[in-house]
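can u pls check wat happens w/ zinc ion
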Amino acid sequence: MAKYRRKFLKPTRFNPKGHMYVGVVWPVEGSTGKKYDVELTDEGFECNCYGFGFHGYCKHSKAVMKKVEQTTFDNFVRILWAKESKEEERSLQHLGLGKRL
Ligand SMILES: [Zn+2]
């Protein structure tokens, strides 16, 4: 067993396992202007800042979690759609079809 275990910030209002938001990355700008990425995984939110690696939570991941838990259904669909259409675009490019018809 590895000594270091990844920690996650568990949402309180939904179960992240298999959630439609899994894989979505929220860019967050820190107070010093540094940019961080908060991602939802099957285990919960994860941030790539130093504090998160140490504590398993941070103000960035907490802010994103709060936002996500307050998200309306409309926003939910919009983010999901953006994610899907991006992937679709990528696969079309891979097939050499370029833009969607
Ligand atoms: Zn963070």
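Helices lie at 50-55, 59-70, 73-94.
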